[in-house]
Amino acid sequence: MFDEGQEPAPCSLTGEMFTMDENGSGSEEETAIRNIVEDWASAVRERNLPAVLRHHSPDILMFDVPPPFQSKGIEAYRKTWDLFFSCAPDPAVFDIKEMQVIAGRDVAFVTAAMRCTEREAGGEDVELDFRLTIGLHKVDGKWLIVHEHHSVPAAE
Fold first, then answer.
1. Which of 2, 11, 71, 133 is the most exposed place for a label (fewest CB within 10 A)?
2. Is the peptide bond before 153 cis (omega within 30 degrees of 0)?
3. In this structure, are residues 48 and 60 in contact, taking their beta carbons and an 8 Å threshold?
4. What's the distance, Cα to Cα, between the start and end of the chain in Å?
5. What is the C-alpha to C-alpha distance for residues 103 and 120, in angstroms, rounded to an integer?
6. pLDDT on residue 3
7. How far lies 50's CA from each of 45, 62, 78, 95, in Å?
8. How large is the average pLDDT for residues 98-105?
9. pLDDT at 148
10. Picking from 24-38, 59-73, 101-115, which range would have the lowest pLDDT averaged per residue?
């Protein structure tokens, strides 16, 4: 896998430091990806659907907590937000509690602990903590979200 005498680049799963090479390209990529995810979460809170979709691949594959089991393609992904926005207070709660980024030259992934709020029929807001995993691919110098997975722990 590595040439003789070559060692893998050091990285930290805490997201605090990822050094891809001596030029620091790993940390630049990490910052760019953090900005994409933070912009996405902000767009969700603002109910700005074009901004929610801005960094997603036309071929996005998403696994979500509510059905459907999977959403393939940007149009199917877009439709999933109809349900979320219909149940969310305004402004929507969609907070990143913690985030880790691992980035290579053209592939990266993000893991995060998130919180959202659903408004029940009686008007009561119910918080939901969930997990987020995002896979990104760099195409023509631009990071695109190609996979998104939201999950909650299985009920005991």
1. 2
2. no
3. no
4. 42
5. 38
6. 44
7. 13, 17, 9, 19
8. 95
9. 98
10. 24-38
CA dist 110 → 82, 91, 122 (Å) = 24, 25, 35
What global pTM score does this model have? 0.80
Task: Inform me whether the pLDDT recorded for 145 exceeds 50.
Answer: yes
Per-residue pLDDT band at 124 (split at 50, 70, 90): confident
> Per residue in 6-33, pLDDT tens?
443 443 333 333 433 333 345 899 999 9
Give residue 26's pLDDT. 53
d(CA 50, CA 46): 11
Phi and psi for 93 in degrees, rounded to 5? -95, 120
In the three-class reduction of DSSP (H, G, I as helix; E, B as strand; rest coil), residue 7 is classed as coil
Q: Which residues contact 120 (CB under 8 A, 6 or more apart)?
A: 126
Residues 143/124, Cβ–Cβ less than 8 Å: no
The two structure tokens encoding residue 80: 């999933």
Q: Is 118 helix (H, G, I), strand (E, B) or coil?
A: strand
Going by C-alpha positions, the residue among 94, 95, 97, 54 that lies closest to residue 77 is 54
In the chain the beta strands, taken as DSSP E runs, fall at 56-63, 71-72, 94-103, 107-119, 125-139, 142-151
Interacting residues of 2 by C-beta distance below 8 A, sequence separation 6+: 8
Single-letter amino acid, residue 100? Q
